Amino acid sequence: MKRAALLMALALGACSGMQTPLAPAADQAEQIRSIWDVMLWVTSFFYLLVIGFLAWAVWRRRRKETAPPRTQVHDQGLERTLAIWAGMIVAGLTLLISWSFLVDRSLASTQDDQALHITVTGAQWWWRVEYTDGTPDKQFETANEIHLPVGETARIKLMTSDVIHSFWVPNLSGKMDMIPGRENVIDITPRKIGVYRGQCAEFCGFQHAHMALTVVVESREDFNRWRNHQLTPAAPPASPKHALGKAVFKAKACSLCHEITGADAGGRTAPNLTHLASRRTIAAGTLPMNRGSLAGWISDPQAIKPGAKMPNVPMSAAESDALVTYLESLK
Fold first, then answer.
1. Averaged pLDDT, 269-295
2. How far is CA 46 from the centre of its chain?
3. Torsion-angle region of residue 315: left (phi > 0), alpha (psi -120 to 50) or beta?
4. Is 86's pLDDT higher than 90?
5. Band (110; pLDDT cuts 50, 70, 90)
6. How confident is the model at residue 306 (pLDDT cuts 50, 70, 90)?
7. What confidence score (pLDDT) does residue 113 get?
């Protein structure tokens, strides 16, 4: 009983959570879920028929026959049964193909009510997220985290800066590849407030498994507050220790790769750190956002994420402590 209960709990857990297509939280994911439902019903129907016929055949074989078997040259009943069976198979396949085609067309159709335009660029192994707008002073950049207002459609343009990646947030939409030299687009219309996990779904190198992103679906009011905060520059150092950390950031190799708006750091090859401490994770979902994670990542990123593009930057314990304190203030 305990084992059965455990298996049932695991099965139910696999159908819910922040990274599963079986718990849709957006219109697009709901349509994809409908394909799953149709396939489940059609294949279950044929499975039960096959099991039923198999049981019937076994039952007939085990009956004690009092008369010798008769040889039939022509069995019209068998022919009719095979014809009906073939027709049912064709009907089932036609239903599956038609349903898949209609859902695919619906997903590919252009939405007219796009509230947001976002560009997501995949890199080894993180995500650059740019919120574009017709007004330049309303554009901003973040990394590894997307915020969406509930009930509004976002048009996400997908690009890559190196190899092929694949954008996939199972609860919200299907997969879309990011191909060098090409721009793909995907629409997401979230319907449920929550935090969802995305993942690169195309093997892209050594740290492919550690290329995740977080998608936060929230109310329009919460989204506006978040966006307005993202538009502000980084807060100035609040103490001498913060000032030392900022100086370390600018003096070391950090500022060559990372950008911090308002801190004279304009690197573009690595994630934007302007509001780093407001994110839920660092290193593209590899570690939770906290002081210990920041310290470990800065001290030896290759030990945490071997092959990552961030090098080991030599610094003293005092410099590292000040830098972590400064980065913690970037909220």
1. 92
2. 33
3. beta
4. no
5. low
6. very high
7. 64
Q: According to the model, what pLDDT value does residue 15 have?
A: 60
Helices 291-299, 317-328: crossing angle, 10 deg rounding: 130
- Tokens 């995907």 appear where? 186
- Residue length of the chain: 331
Q: Could you tell me the domains of the chain? A: 18-58+78-231 (2.60.40.420), 240-328 (2.60.40.420)
Instruction: Give yes or no for a contact between 35 and 99, defined as CB atoms under 8 angstroms apart.
Output: yes
CA distance 257 to 311: 11
- pLDDT recorded at residue 104: 80
To the question of pTM greater than 0.70 for the whole model, the response is yes
Segment 164-174, tens digit of pLDDT:
999 999 999 98
The two tokens of residue 97 are 């193909």
Give the CA angle between residues 124, 148, 23 to the nearest 5°: 85
Are 298 and 323 within 8 A, CB to CB?
yes
Contacts by 224-229, CB closer than 8 A, 24 or more apart: 226/147, 227/131, 227/140, 227/147, 229/275, 229/278
Q: How far lies 65's CA from each of 75, 211, 222, in Å?
A: 20, 66, 77
Dist CA 177 CA 204 (whole Å): 11
Cα–Cα distance between 199 and 144 in angstroms, integer?
10
| Cβ-based neighbour number of residue 15 at 10 Å | 10
Q: How far is CA 249 from CA 140, 258, 269, 301, in A?
A: 21, 9, 16, 16
- Strands 140-143 and 126-132 turn out to be antiparallel
- What is the Cα–Cα distance from 37 to 216, expressed in whole angstroms? 27
Q: What separation, in Å, do the N-terminal and C-terminal C-alpha atoms of the chain show?
A: 49
Determine the pLDDT at residue 167: 96
